[in-house]
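Researcher: Let's try something more involved. This one mixes different molecule types, so please make sure each is placed in the same coordinate frame as the others.
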Amino acid sequence: MSTPVVEVNNLTKEFTVKSTRGLRVIRRTVHAVSDVSLTIPEGKTVGLVGESGSGKTTVGRCILRLIEPTAGSVKFKGTELLGMEQNDLRKLRRSMQIVFQDPYASLDPKMTVGASIAEPLEIQRVSGNHQDRVAELLELVGLAPDHARRFPHEFSGGQRQRVGVARALALNPSFIVLDEPVSALDVSIQAGVVNLLQDLQEQLGLSYLFIAHDLSVVRHISDTVAVMYLGKIVEVGPAEDLYMASGHPYTKALLSAVPQADPVTERGRPRIMLQGEVPSPINPPSGCRFRTRCPIAKEICAVEEPELKERGQGHPVACHFADTVALEMPNPAAV
Amino acid sequence: MTDATLSIRDLRVTFKTLLGPVQAVRGVSLDVHPGEVLGVVGESGSGKSVSFLSVMGLLGKNAIIEGSAKVGDVELVGANQKAMRRVRGSDVAMIFQDPLSALNPVHRVGSQVAEMILAHQRGMSKDAAAKRAVELLDLVGIPQPEQRARQYAHEFSGGMRQRVMIAMAIANNPKVLIADEPTTALDVTVQAQILEVIDRIRKEMGTAVVLITHDLGVVARMADRVQVMYAGRVVERADVHNIFHGSRHPYTRGLLGSQPTLGNERLTPIPGAPPNMLQPPSGCAFRARCVHAAPECAGDLPELVQVGLTESACVRAHELEALV
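Model: All components are placed in one shared frame. Result:
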């Protein structure tokens, strides 16, 4: 097997937050990402799903070192990124890019779209005719070359996201972090951007980390899916496998909570209602972090943290009862 | 069938802007019956929110509202502020996408709910209203309601704030609850809880619910009937099953087709973008993006007509095979 494009091992990110109580300053630690390991093979898409606060965006940014990880290892094509000098890192960043969620906020309103797309070329001092490259990139993402002279406000949301993709592609990267790239778009527009991302992957051999909270889009685009809860990966597996035979109670509950766009299946399937909300990452529960909301939690879950354990199917699950009680829970997606 | 709780006829909303009049809503008619959920679906700019904001009298002075919207015998379009204030929050209540901006940050949550009760039930004492507020918070599933009533909005999570909004909305037993994207800002597991609360209220109190959303999954789960909006018009209306399985409008089909599917089949986006409502196109507003467009589509504005099991505003609806 060839070296994976990205290999993340035991990645941990803790943020310190300060609050004051009277004159006293209290420092507390937010455990945003704890001990996350992840492999992204060449030319494949790994989907990362989870609710707000699960740490999925932090993982994406730590991989690119846009946020400095607290501990762990991130290897890009075998090269360790953590601890690398800024100069070397900048060179490597040509190969690693990111597309952000909000196409309105991620483009400079005072720069023409062409200038925005050419900016990475200038920063990296790429030689050659930048205008030609911009025209080429615009065509690649389904826009017209003369759009380069326009400003972001002249574009619709979907077109703006295409500009964001063109900018990410400017330096011929091999790996792109897609951080909720279609969440802000209407569904009829979203489909076009999803198709574009898939076409580009095939054409250019790109590898993606696709971060999203929308499970149906993730299922559609990903080869492998990882589910995060409160800073930890609770389950990883091949996309279809994870959806049709999920092994973790949280994955099952999450899948059952996503309404399916079909009244017959939607009303006929089992539903696992979770009580309460995600606890604070400042004080994550002891043992299994999901236990406070888990319908099958037992005493052991508060004492011992379940490991993300391979069960011989390429589909590891971090649950003490992955082979017993959790297995018997209904599979909400399998209808 | 029982009489409609909320009855809207030929509603039109035009915004005066510097660039000229924007025709946001162009002739919408609908009925909502007690205890039913009407799903209103459409993309950004289709006029789905504006229609109901205009009914509630919540639009700015630059909005020109025409047509009729009646709750029982009370006409809401053109009603004066005093009359609106009597209806709003008692007969018709509305909840919004962002509950934080709808709550007052410097008043305790319980007193905001109580204020809502006192605004419409003059005879009630403050103590009784405070007690009723706690009951309402309990009803919408807020744990430890007595303590929570004394807290402020910032001490509540997004899902809990939306529950508070629902408590305020149902404080005076409204006949109609208009929910404008009530779960869009929430995580899916919390969304499921909020939808459950809305469903329970509908069943227990017989409230008619208008559920405005862009999420076809939410509609499939909650709605009894659905109407699909595009460019300020209703383009299709039917029972929920017939919208998903018997649609006779190309836009509805386009929306359903853009949904991510199982496996790796290619998605089919709707080409192009919605029209500019400063100059809405003649005839069918969807024709520029429609795969079935024909010369006759540029003619008169298509009206809803019964085709098969749905009402469709497509002149070629009878030629379209029903979706199976």
